[in-house]
TrEMBL record:
EC number(s) on file: 2.7.7.87
Family of the protein in this entry: Belongs to the SUA5 family.
Species assigned in the record: Duganella rivi
Catalytic reaction list: L-threonine + hydrogencarbonate + ATP = L-threonylcarbamoyladenylate + diphosphate + H2O
GO molecular function: ATP binding; double-stranded RNA binding; L-threonylcarbamoyladenylate synthase; tRNA binding
Protein's name in the database: Threonylcarbamoyl-AMP synthase
Residue numbers binding L-threonine: 33, 65, 119, 142, 199
Length: 357
């Protein structure tokens, strides 16, 4: 089973983080998927600070996080029956619904689109924060707490690494009144994110014309959604709204990443090592000596849980290349394969280049 977190933010830290949000500041907080970088969704200046801190282009919308039982009708104009069923079945949990944005909600969170992404996370620290913030009536806009294009953080330490903070930057954790002057003042501790990859995103905003659309695969599968609403979410078409996690290159470490099936990988590894190339290996079945190696569980949930920490750790080893043993290709592995495909983007031909050196 999953490891219990060593420490989690206490009530005092959570109350202080809620106050920081209410004052327009940024708070990084744990969710069951990945850590989020949060701001008051109804304060456009605060939301703008998220974009600044992440270096994220302004045309990428952010997800609004709500406390369990929050009034969805405040945020969106239309909640189709099917969306209510999904809320009932999967919230709190790793599912984001795209719905028609209520005109009273700032388009800062939706990058000008008429829709808004809403999610109710299940991590107890996230729930405590959302319940404390504006007495549970607010919404926290939060993308993943990483610099744009990088691997998402699944621990508080990953967040501090991303933003170049040390633990002492973190006023609220120690109960200090003051927050650091850095853009990101507070990182709430919540252990390792249990799911490990970002939420499943389903667009329910154009149900009548397009049906449900799967914008990003995740822990909750298209089939689980179909089991609840009787319609299988379709793959996005050209007209689908933009989702930054759907860019071809994303979730990428600095070291090039390449994916190969076991046989081809063993072969390439031998040739690369003979050339003196340092390779970090991420596998689920193979156990071949490499300069660095992380073996992940051969089940999709266990693999997803360890994937981003593995990419980050292998990125730190100083290796020339990260080789990933191609995971199984069946539907249960869709979320994992989607993230891996984006992390290898742009590294085509890297093995030949390294061998020719
Ligand atoms: O698991 C998650 O969803 C995490 C945690 C922190 O909740 N958040 C996350 O946020 O992954 P972010 O910003 O890294 O990815 C959210 C994705 C983006 O690809 C964004 O473009 C898309 O959701 N999105 C948000 N609002 C949208 C909208 N109105 N229409 C289409 N896509 C939207
Ligand atoms: Mg992200």
């Amino acid at each position: 089973m999953k490891q219990a977190p060593a420490t989690v933010a206490d009530q005092a830290a959570i109350a202080e983080a809620a106050a920081v949000l209410e004052e327009g500041g940024l708070v990084a907080f744990p969710t069951e998927t990945v850590y989020g970088l949060g701001a008051d969704a109804e304060n456009p200046a605060a939301v703008a600070r998220i974009y600044e801190a992440k270096g994220r282009p302004h045309d990428h919308p952010v997800i609004v996080h709500l406390a369990p039982g929050a009034d969805l009708d405040y945020w969106v104009t239309e909640v189709p029956e099917e969306a209510r069923k999904l809320v009932q079945a999967f919230w709190p949990g790793p599912l984001t619904l795209i719905l028609k944005r209520h005109p009273q909600i700032s388009d800062a969170v939706s990058a000008g689109q008429d829709s808004v992404g809403i999610r109710c996370p299940s991590h107890p620290v996230a729930i405590a924060l959302l319940s404390a913030f504006k007495g549970g009536k607010g919404g926290v806009a939060a993308p993943s707490a990483n610099k744009f294009g990088n691997v998402s953080p699944t621990s508080a330490q990953h967040v501090r690494d991303e933003f170049g903070m040390d633990e002492h930057d973190d006023g609220a954790l120690n109960g200090d009144a003051a927050c650091s002057a850095s853009a990101l003042g507070v990182v709430l501790e919540g252990g390792s994110s249990e799911v490990g990859i970002e939420s499943t995103i389903v667009d329910m905003s154009r149900l009548a014309t397009h049906g449900p659309v799967l914008l990003r695969p995740g822990h909750i599968s298209a089939q689980q959604i179909a089991d609840v609403i009787g319609m299988l979410p379709a793959a996005p078409d050209q007209a689908a709204p933009r989702a930054s996690g759907t860019l071809e290159s994303h979730y990428a470490p600095r070291t090039p990443v390449t994916m190969l099936a076991a046989d081809a990988l063993t072969d390439a590894l031998a040739k690369l090592q003979a050339k003196g190339v340092k390779v970090a290996l991420i596998s689920h079945a193979l156990n071949t000596p490499a300069a660095a190696h992380r073996q992940l569980p051969a089940d999709p949930a266990g693999y997803a849980y360890g994937l981003y920490a593995a990419l980050r750790d292998m990125d730190q080893t100083g290796c020339d290349l990260i080789l990933v043993e191609t995971p199984p290709q069946d539907n249960d592995w869709l979320g994992v394969n989607d993230r891996l495909r984006r992390s290898v983007f742009g590294s085509a031909g890297i093995i030949d280049t390294l061998l020719q050196k």
